[in-house]
Amino acid sequence: MVAGPRRRGAALVKALHSAVLEELDEVGLGRLTMDGIARRAGTARTTLYRRWANPGELLLSAIGEAYPVEEPSPVAGELRADLIRSLELLVEWARHPTARAVQAILAERRAHPELAARLDELFDASGRRFTATVLDHHARLGTIAPGSVTPLVENLGEAMVVKHWIDVGREPDREYLVQIVDQLILPVLGDRSAVAGPCAGP
Amino acid sequence: MVAGPRRRGAALVKALHSAVLEELDEVGLGRLTMDGIARRAGTARTTLYRRWANPGELLLSAIGEAYPVEEPSPVAGELRADLIRSLELLVEWARHPTARAVQAILAERRAHPELAARLDELFDASGRRFTATVLDHHARLGTIAPGSVTPLVENLGEAMVVKHWIDVGREPDREYLVQIVDQLILPVLGDRSAVAGPCAGP
DNA sequence: ACTTATCGCTACAGTTGTGTATCTTACTCC
DNA sequence: GGAGTAAGATACACAACTGTAGCGATAAGT
Question: Residue A174: pLDDT above 60?
């Protein structure tokens, strides 16, 4: 903490929101403490207790502040480019500390059921839709067959990105996103041009 | 702890392995303590310290004991049935506490980098291959075009199952696994029979 | 049965975090 | 520039966990 003018109100809250997200990254969900967060934010524990009862509440408040995310609509025109763009937006979103916080809570659902339940509420309102937005749009336009856009297909891109994150621990590079679109999403939609092998078997 | 004959050696270690996995489920990775594990196992803390230096070591030891998993080869004959079976095996594996432990460590990579690194070592030797085994087998047989089995395709099934687990918090039912195969994997491999919509767009 | 390794128990000082109370300091607004 | 409000500092009793030490008690091997 740099010694500046004394913070209060919204500015202070914002600083504490940052602090709890940083703390989460460093110590993990289970070791979040009012003490640690206060220390990191350079303030007194009493200040935290005036607003939140425990680290979980503080964390939820930090997550809630970042929502609803303004999702720039990735619908420009061409299907393939739109899909790639939507995955890039997903990665961008996931890069944000808030996204990691969500991930951390969901991963330890069993250990923190109340926290997970509260989180689900936060999310039901503003769903995360990335490739789904693009697919729905193009299905309505007729670019792709409406019947081929199932819930599973809508989840495909997100699933591959999440899996990569879990396995490797880093975000996927652009090349990987392109491969997801070319090797998986487009073929599933019926576009066989981008993958090896003809439509019917050899 | 039921008061039975005093455990020692391998039996004791096994009990402690169970205890640490149960404890992980209940309190999460960050709140694992020697104290809590010892209490749950009905033994003294000193007994734990005689073998492991901290809860992380104990947990790794518990995970290591469960490996290498004997993966029953899900290759019976027909591609579709084999794929479904391989996903069922994946779900079965993921149901085991050990799998949840792995998941917990990977989810908090940033907070526990040493633990994650040690885990990666454990895994590099015996990789988890479920649908991949089936795909490789059938590619060698010529049932499917070898060129269509890319690393992404091999990961597709696992990714969808993992994503479901994260989003819903429960394991997917059989119906969902069938949909993964019929709506995603088979279409990507070039089999258009199981999904709505013609091969070329309308 | 006798020995030996090891397990369970108790105790201890030290550390960290909790939640509250109290008091001083410094912004903000009129 | 004075009043009111909110932040920061300090102190406290309490609780949980740590890591080590010492001492029976008990299972296993000969």
Answer: yes
